[in-house]
Each structure stands twice: as structure tokens, then as C-alpha cells.
Amino acid sequence: MALILSIETATPVCSVCLTDGDRILGILETSEHNSHSKVVAVFIEELLRKTGTDKHKLDAVAVSKGPGSYTGLRIGVSTAKGLCYALDKPLISIGTLEAMAYGMKLLPLHAKPELPVIYVPMIDARRMEVFTAMFDENLNPVKETSADIITAESFAGLLENHHLVIAGDGADKCRSLLTHANITFLSGFGASARFMAEPANQRFNSGTFEDTAYFEPFYLKDFIAGKPRVKGLD
């Protein structure tokens, strides 16, 4: 069993989870807007205290690597790297959409689809664009992570032979466009460090670690800063 601290800050949710193998020992999370920098270190300290865990006993630190919020990813990755350096522990990275797919599979559907299921986690990327990927029922990648503009025809080629399960904070804006009978939306679903437990444990057991010194978040898109507006100079 591996004692792993997982950190999820790629979306509006700031979440920290402690697991021993596949057993969740504790979790703290919040959806408070722009709270990541204020609470992530506090959550880690409180979680370790509540579970009676000596931070030096950790086997690894896992972090959600993106895509997602630029600022959120920087906060999560810098926190995870700082812990790894201080404690001399290995760093594990988990794709944010991959972890979400693990979480989606845990949720029961109202009716079991007759067709093979494809999980489609979505993260809001503003306007009608989302960060998304696709995973089959065994959580093998079907479509790699991409930034897509969603239209009514986005999944037309799949819907005759598959049932799509769509969830995440990017999914709500797609409901009015994606009305096919072979689509199920999961309401109220978001990223959480608890969903990182299984893939993080798998990577630990296989020795799949990141180079802590050079690891960077997976932004997917280049950051474009907004042009500052100064009253009277427009």
C-alpha cells in the first residue's frame, strides 16, 4: 500500500486527498472562487493533522497536471513540487480529465446503456470551447485531450454505436446542443482529488514518476493575457 497525498487545483475546485492504496483516509475541498492560493497549504496541513499522518511517512505526492486554469495549475504544481523537494518524495502527475473519467465511472447511471459507454469529461475553456477527452469503459483513451468548440455535430460519428456520458464544469453549456438519446449528462459533477486515487496508485506501483525539477503543468493552450484598460486612455 502506498500513502499518497493528491492535490487537485486545475478547476474552480480546490481539493486535497490522502489515500492508502485504494482507501481514502481523508479529503478536504472547496469550490470557493479564487481560494486555491489561500487554502491549499492549509488543507494539506489540516488533513495530515486530522488523519494523524506524519508528512515524512508519505510515499509520494500526486498532482492534477491539467488542462485547466493557468493560475490553479501553477498553484497546485508548485505546492506539490515544494513538498516533494522538502520531503524527498517522488512526484506523480495525473491528467485532470483522466481523473475525472475515473470519477465518472464511479457514479451509477439511471439506466444501464445498451451500447458501449464512452466517458467524456469536460472542463470549461470559455465561450463554447471546452477541454475534453474520451475514455472507454475500461478508461483507456479513445480520444486524446484537446480544446474543442462544441456544436450539435460534435459527436455525430459516435452516437449510433456508443452511449456518451458527459460531465464536468464545461458540460452544462453543451446541454442545449447535445440532445441525442445516446447522451447522458451527469449533473453536479466536478474534479476532485479523490478521483486521482486509483491512477496515482497505479503509477506509484509501476514507478511512473515525474522529474520534479523540470515538470510543468499541461496547459494545452498558450496563456494570453488580457490587455489592461486604463480609464481615459482607451
Describe this protein's structure:
The protein is α/β, with parallel strands linked by helices. It has two domains: 3-95 and 191-206, Nucleotidyltransferase, domain 5 (2-Layer Sandwich), CATH 3.30.420.40; 97-185, Nucleotidyltransferase, domain 5, CATH 3.30.420. 23% of the residues lie in helices and 26% in strands. The protein contains four helices and ten strands. It has helices at 36-50, 70-87, 96-106, 197-206, and strands at residues 3-8, 14-20, 23-30, 60-64, 91-94, 117-124, 129-135, 141-149, 163-167, 183-185. The strands form two sheets. It has a five-stranded mixed β-sheet with strand order 3-2-1-4-5, with helices on both faces. Strands 8-7-6-9-10 form a five-stranded mixed β-sheet, with helices on one face. β7 (129-135) and β8 form a beta hairpin. α1 (36-50) crosses α2. The radius of gyration is 18 Å and the shape is globular. The termini are far apart. The relative contact order is 0.20. Mean pLDDT is 92; it is low at 223-234.
